[in-house]
TrEMBL record:
Keywords associated with the record: Nucleus, Transcription
Comp. bias regions, Acidic residues: 42-81
Subcellular location: Nucleus
Keyword Disulfide bond: no
GO cellular component, one term: nucleus
Taxonomic path: Eukaryota, Fungi, Dikarya, Ascomycota, Pezizomycotina
Basic and acidic residues bias locations: 187-200
Gene3D superfamilies documented for this protein: YVTN repeat-like/Quinoprotein amine dehydrogenase (2.130.10.10)
Organism field: Ampelomyces quisqualis (Powdery mildew agent)
GO BP, sorted A to Z: transcription by RNA polymerase III
Membrane-spanning segments: none
Name assigned to this protein: WD40-repeat-containing domain protein
Spans annotated as Disordered: 1-84, 181-202, 633-658
Length: 740
């Protein structure tokens, strides 16, 4: 844009694609197989210099219902190339696996773009003048018979039936899910035909192409336990003291690295407590459940914070190289695969100990984020008992070297029978991509074979594994995305999609405070933004039951942005600190949120979204608090034991209220649970006993960094949908069947 052009002209313009040394310039070439340029708009965008929030002045008479006749029989522009038509058809077959009633009228759009067999259209009446409060007319730039909204039509698919069925089916679930097989089911908004088609397509691709490609391109070798030690090391302490149990009689447990504790151990009543508490040493970076619908073993992939010991260690907030925008040098790191057993009813079987089944060792830097393929792929027609390897799933991840990779995860069946940990070193992945002059920041599966990746410069790249040359067999190859476009002017923090019912909708949160919704079928025409937030939104998820995207805001509340009213916030939950993580389940309407104070809250927001006058219920799953050594505190407390020299872990003091000095010199974690459900409301309560002082603002509590909730995830498998996992900044990981 030139310097003479008005500034307001740039508001309605879409940012163009980035080009780096012409490596991705093929995406803007009409002769290429795929393009990232905007589709031809049905209506010319106005470029007048005027306020975007005020209607344009008109000289015509301002009649309320004046209509003009538009001649549409003129020949259309022929700039719609065959490659673009092929791209749209391929996009429909590979991405938009939805109910036929929920898809747009693509055939009408194709005829509009110049097909020879289109039906001629002569006269279409479109309202041109719409009067507003001051009598000023505004152009009806969106009044085109060829444009529809990117959501289902109420007259065809029904608008209220799915949400009413959802409300009535889960009426008993106020907060935590009900421990009953009938309380778990797929969404009423989802099409069974679409899921079956997506599953069939993914299985067919893996059987015909995927398995062989992974076997040839993915380079791996087995390691001994001694060789894998550098890949498991982190900067955390070798042990951690945990105070948990009843409030009136808590117990202290010392957990070493890679050890675990039954959550029912400190309590007398152990019947309805099914879960484990792990100490992995350092901050939990990510934790995700693998897709395994029919198996009795559930796999959890976990990554902890790891740093390069040989590299530089700049101080916090003092790195001039901006690590969020630059890649790190390769160093050893790992992803841990833990296995958990379930009983016939789908509950967590606490009679069988959890085990570290597999450790994926790499030299690609620290794993930053990863997601399992959402479609369960059977490993061929051979019986499971006769297979040499146990396949866990397909894992897509982002490492700190700035690259995104897709790996096929499996381990020898002999390791599962002996309960031994298998250490696997990967040196090459079948899908290994780096985007020029930027780093990948977030990713999301759009279907069983399609992956979307956001970058630090605001671009979005999408690959489909079924397309040719996507799965590389050469180490130096860099598969090109079929979609690569600038959708934001700044850093993309999160990306998520409306899979499985609305896979074509993509929602992103960026560093400018906005959240944006795109329909990837027509990304330049169907897009909208949410209300701008004042803080960075570092977490986002799709709530299938209410057809909305959930994310936190600066008021410590959880907002819903429905696809029909994405620009409006509907609030359903409230926390007492900044919400750091949120998670929604695909098999029940439960939502989990975690805050900087270490509290994890659960709720069912369906009633609130269906009727906004309803005050939802909310319940605390558990609360986590971390404190460092007492000697490092600002206000040092004196030990209460009478003789510190005689106080050891094996020789506790006679006074029950005395605190041994050994516990004061080491970090301590306190976990409390057993909270009752309550109705917090949306507005924060005001203590009427205290006199209001307008000169003093509301205080903001600063919590310890290690107290924060860093990971939340529901198990996506139908039979075990009540399982949840929570990762904490202290290095603790809690896995529990939270069904009540």
């Amino acid at each position: 844009m030139s310097d003479d052009a008005p500034r307001r002209q740039s508001r309605a313009k879409q940012p163009s694609s980035y080009r780096f040394d012409q490596e991705y310039s093929f995406l803007d070439d009409e002769s290429g197989s795929a393009r990232s340029e905007s589709q031809a708009s049905d209506i010319d965008e106005p470029q007048e210099d005027g306020d975007d929030f005020m209607p344009d002045a008109e000289e015509e008479p301002e009649d309320d219902f004046e209509e003009d006749v538009i001649e549409s029989s003129e020949p259309e522009s022929e700039d719609y190339s065959a490659s673009e038509n092929e791209r749209l058809v391929t996009l429909e077959l590979n991405i938009v696996e939805t109910n036929s009633d929920l898809t747009l009228g693509r055939s009408d759009v194709k005829r509009h773009k110049g097909q020879a067999d289109r039906a001629p259209r002569s006269k279409v009446k479109v309202p041109i003048h719409i009067t507003r409060g001051g009598g000023v007319a505004a152009k009806a730039v969106a009044a085109s018979p060829l444009r529809t909204r990117g959501v289902a039509d109420f007259t065809k698919a029904g608008g209220q039936e799915p949400i009413l069925l959802t409300r009535d089916y889960w009426a008993r679930q106020e907060t935590l899910p009900v421990r009953n097989p009938s309380s778990l089911r797929r969404s009423f908004h989802e099409s069974k035909k679409a899921r079956a088609k997506d599953t069939s397509t993914t299985k067919q691709w893996y059987a015909e192409t995927g398995r062989e490609t992974f076997a040839k391109a993915q380079k791996s070798r087995q390691l001994r336990a001694e060789e894998a030690t550098p890949y498991l090391s982190n900067s955390g302490a070798e042990s951690l003291n945990v105070l948990c149990g009843p409030v009136d009689n808590p117990q202290v447990y010392t957990l070493k690295k890679l050890s675990y504790l039954n959550v029912a151990e400190p309590f007398k009543e152990k019947k309805n407590r099914r879960g484990w508490l792990f100490n992995l040493g350092s901050r939990i970076q990510d934790a995700q459940w693998a897709t395994n619908e029919e198996g009795s073993i559930q796999y959890l992939a976990v990554a902890v914070e790891q740093r390069d010991k040989a590299g530089p260690h700049p101080k916090l907030l003092a790195n001039p190289q901006a690590p969020a925008f630059s890649a790190t040098e390769p160093f050893p790191a790992s992803i841990q695969i833990w296995a958990f057993d379930s009983d016939q009813e789908g509950q967590l079987d606490i009679s069988k100990q959890p085990r570290l089944q597999l450790v994926i060792c790499t030299d690609w830097g620290a794993p930053k984020q990863f997601r399992w393929c959402p479609v369960d792929i059977e490993d061929g027609d051979q019986p499971v008992e006769e297979q040499d390897h146990v396949r866990v799933g397909t894992l897509a991840g982002i490492w700190s070297d700035g690259r995104v990779r897709i790996i096929d995860v499996s381990y020898p069946r002999s390791a599962s029978k002996s309960n031994e940990t298998h250490y696997l070193h990967l040196s090459q992945a079948a899908f290994d991509v780096a985007i020029p002059q930027t780093v990948c920041t977030c990713l999301k599966w759009l279907s069983g074979t399609t992956l979307a990746v956001g970058t630090a410069i605001g671009t979005l790249a999408i690959w489909t594994l079924t397309r040719p040359d996507t799965m590389a067999t050469q180490q130096d190859s860099n598969p090109r995305p079929w979609f690569y476009q600038q959708i934001s002017d700044t850093y993309i923090l999160t990306v998520t999609s409306g899979w499985p019912s609305q896979p074509h909708f993509i929602s992103i949160t960026t560093a400018d405070g906005f959240a944006r919704l795109y329909d990837i079928r027509t990304p330049n025409a169907d897009t909208t933004a949410s209300i701008r937030g004042r803080t960075l939104c570092v977490t986002q998820d799709w709530h299938e039951q209410t057809q909305s995207f959930i994310a936190p805001d600066e008021h410590y509340m959880l907002k819903h942005n429905p696809i029909r009213r994405y620009y409006h916030n509907l609030y359903s939950m409230r926390a007492e600190s900044i919400i750091t993580r949120c998670a929604a389940s695909p098999v029940h309407p439960g939502i989990l949120i975690g805050g900087a104070d270490g509290r994890v809250e659960a709720s069912n927001p369906v009633g609130r979204i269906a009727n906004y006058k309803i005050i939802p219920w909310q319940q605390t799953w558990f609360a986590h608090e971390w404190r460092g050594p007492v000697g490092n505190l600002v206000n040092k407390s004196k030990p209460t034991d009478p003789d510190p020299a005689d106080m050891t872990d094996d020789n506790p003091p006679s006074d029950p209220s005395a605190v041994p000095r050994a516990f004061l010199h080491h970090p301590l974690v306190r976990i409390t649970e057993g909270y009752k459900a309550f109705q917090p409301g949306i507005q924060h309560s005001v203590n009427s006993k205290k006199a209001a002082n307008p000169e003093v603002g509301k205080g903001i509590t600063i919590y310890e960094e290690n107290s924060a909730v860093t990971v939340l995830a529901w198990n996506p498998n139908l039979k075990v949908g009540t399982w949840a996992v929570a990762g904490l900044g202290s290095g603790l990981l809690r896995v529990e069947d939270v069904g009540v």
